[in-house]
């Protein structure tokens, strides 16, 4: 149904509320026909405290240099620019991570229980994972990932 046809169908309605209901239902019909609602799975990953707005901007710039410049052109100068940006980003992330971990260690003060719990939190995949197959040296944090299914309009 076209919007032009909607006007002819609703000209006889005198109640404003009924008119609004008719407009809404017809517009939803048109929207459903042209861009039906589809289920999309959105994955929400946990945020680490060392990921800041600044690092997100740097990563965006890094991806832009890689995809839109170096990979597209193949120029040696673009590759050098990408490498320099990548190194700056890596140093910035390492600096942020070191500062936050240092701050967490200092917050433990001289409480060995808090410090031990912090070490476990930073090195293990799950609480109490130090079984026979686990070695602290090889454990890495694996945060939980939540997937949420929601419906959105897709054209």
Overview of this structure, please?
The structure is a single chain. The chain has helices spanning 3-10, 16-34, 53-73, 76-107, 112-123, and strands at 37-44, 146-153. The protein is mainly alpha-helical and 155 residues long. It folds into 2 domains: 3-34, no CATH class; 44-148. α3 (53-73) runs antiparallel to α4.
Q: Main traits of this protein?
A:
single chain, 155 residues, mainly alpha, 2 domains, two-stranded antiparallel sheet, 5 helices, 2 strands, flat
Question: Concise description?
Answer:
With 155 residues, the protein is mainly alpha-helical. It contains five helices and two strands, in the order ααβαααβ. The chain has helices spanning 3-10, 16-34, 53-73, 76-107, 112-123; strands at 37-44, 146-153.
Question: What is the topology?
Answer:
Layout: H1 3-10, H2 16-34, E1 37-44, H3 53-73, H4 76-107, H5 112-123, E2 146-153
Helix pairs in contact: 3-4
Low-pLDDT runs of 5+ residues are: 135-139
Radius of gyration: 27 Å
Mean pLDDT: 76
Total of domains = 2
Main pleated-sheet profile: 2 strands, antiparallel
Bin the helical content.
Answer: 55-70%
Give the strand order of the largest sheet, numbering strands 1, 2, ... along the chain: 1-2
